[in-house]
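In this section we turn from sequence analysis to structure. A common task in structural bioinformatics is to predict how a protein folds when a small molecule is present, because the ligand can shape the pocket around it. The inputs are simple: the amino acid sequence and a SMILES string for the ligand, here pyridoxal-5'-phosphate. Study the lines below before reading on.
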Amino acid sequence: MTATEGSILTPADLAGNGVHGNDPDIHGKFGIFGGRYVPEALIPALDEVAAEYEKAKTDLAFLREFDHLLRTYAGRPTTLTEVPRFAEHAGGARILLKREDLTHTGAHKINNVLGQALLTKRLGKRRVIAETGAGQHGVATATAAALMGLECVIYMGAVDCERQALNVARMKLLGATVVPVTNGSQTLKDAINEAFRDWVTNVDHTHYLFGTVAGPHPFPEIVRDFARIIGVEARRQVQELTGRLPDAVCAAVGGGSNAIGVFHAFVEDENVRLYGYEAGGRGAETGEHALTLTEGSVGVLHGARTYVLQDEEGQTIESHSISAGLDYPGVGPEHAWLKDTGRATYEGVTDAEAMEAFALLARTEGIIPAIESSHALAGALRLGRELGPDALILVNLSGRGDKDMGTAMKYFNL
Amino acid sequence: MTTLHAVFDKARAEDRAALVGYLPAGFPTKDGAVAAATAMVEAGCDVIEIGLPYSDPLMDGPTIQDAVHRSLTNGTRIADVLRTVEGVAKSGAATLVMTYWNPIDRYGAERFARDLASAGGVGTITPDLTPEESEPWLAASKDAGIDTVFLVAPSSPDERIARVAGCCTGFVYAASLMGVTGARESVSSAAEGLVKRTRANTALPVCVGLGVGNGAQAAEVAAYADGVIVGSAFIRRLLDAPDEKSGLAAVRELASELARGVRR
Ligand SMILES: Cc1ncc(COP(=O)(O)O)c(C=O)c1O
């Protein structure tokens, strides 16, 4: 597997069977996690997506097309920015940001979306549906649908529609239909339920363009592979800039796609520590949080075995976070596995800590991050103080904060 | 306790299809569910599926979602579900629990199978448990002596139908259409073909559910299936009723109409 001339992607960059040590088995299992817990009606569709992806990921024509879109449309490779003034608040550790906020549409979600939109065309389907929390995955999906002439329906919790109103308008402008979901907690979890209901009804012509590394097999693997470019680039860039690998890689964890995207290229680098930051909301002790890995228990949600916020009878507990993109009571199965094997560490960051980091990055570096990404920034501040001034920390700045200005205006009385 | 085996034997002897009714536990109230299911049995249901209300019912349409939401708001717990099964089983119907997998997973497969059997339940229907993940449940159910029912769908290829049917005891649940639960104007034309393909892969009875809501549809399905499953239409009657008494009357009336349908 050698790099295609002038290409930023190789088949190995999409991982794949045996290329990397931690691919799921044929049932989509990462250890005991993952698998498929879905209505039987969806099994053929999941098999079809998995089979098409198996072909696509080693098809040089597919890789070339994906690569071309990432370069000329998404704006890859994204740059690496050192943030010394911000890092002064982290005990002087050296902090580097992987700038996914600079991609087209403003978040890492575009990487997965472009890959799956190409897959949709290969599958011969003309309609895509997606769930969205922060609206970033919805915007990215609506964008790719506009680009490729696909019909697009986005399911979004009614609560999220309100707190991310700007993104709702963007999706509409891009030609997508946005369906506010009013049942349950009216957030991401319920949007996913509704998208599955649509999919089982319209599966003959519709692809469910899943937005994170959760859900039934093969979504955790496909979404990871399409997001993997983040870490592949960052690993190279950090080495070019500093001559070594980072001591730690930090990312926010909602469903887990930006975190897996940046982690995966480092999984085999034993000396690189991986830190995922979940939304601590109002604090673990209040019960109002989205601390799935750190406070949850093993169960089944949205088609996969993973950590879940649930009561003792298996009912899902509603999560809370100031950030819509992290407000989810489940998490991707590969993270569950990375946690249980001890390869990655997961901690919580409260709403208040995240908002403080949000404002700090804006004032010290002139970068307004997404509130989701601000959880990783807050984690890096904490970690820097722990590791000391010699530490080199890579943070995945998964998205930009434009969409969050309404929340920021309220929070800071701007 | 009436077994599924006995139900289908009797129906076959009477040259008709069996009538299967669904209601979630705790809806419209905890006692109301037992009363409604009992009325359904008295008016002709042979089998009752008691739904275990779950926070994320991703295979269900708006009617069942609504009922389940009310049930959870009423504070329905697994102990209530088991008590409901106990109450309904007394009516003489074969009583099953229909549930998404996570509540059983969390409760403990062996414990749930045992407790369900002690309550007089004869089996479960598990719509999101795939054959690949079914091993612990098949073992626990076998030990407890209860049946396991899984679903096949119009999209299922024959080898998949064989695999799913291989996990079933009691009967195979054929989902008539690609979609969620809910009554429809007409029964999907995909259902008959699916039943045929399923029969080619199993000797078990095959029951059809999803989208059946009146006597004429029940008669249509009864012409080619061993059982007719109705859920949302019963719930709709209860949701639309001004009070519990008229709700019971409406449910009874629908059950009689369906019972005539499966005998046509
Ligand atoms: C900018 C940004 N970061 C992170 C997330 C969380 O998702 P994930 O954990 O899949 O990266 C989102 C989700 O909407 C997002 O928009």
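Residues 28-74+109-224 of chain A form a domain with the Rossmann fold fold (CATH 3.40.50.1100). As an exercise, try to locate the residues that line the pyridoxal-5'-phosphate site and compare them with your own expectations.
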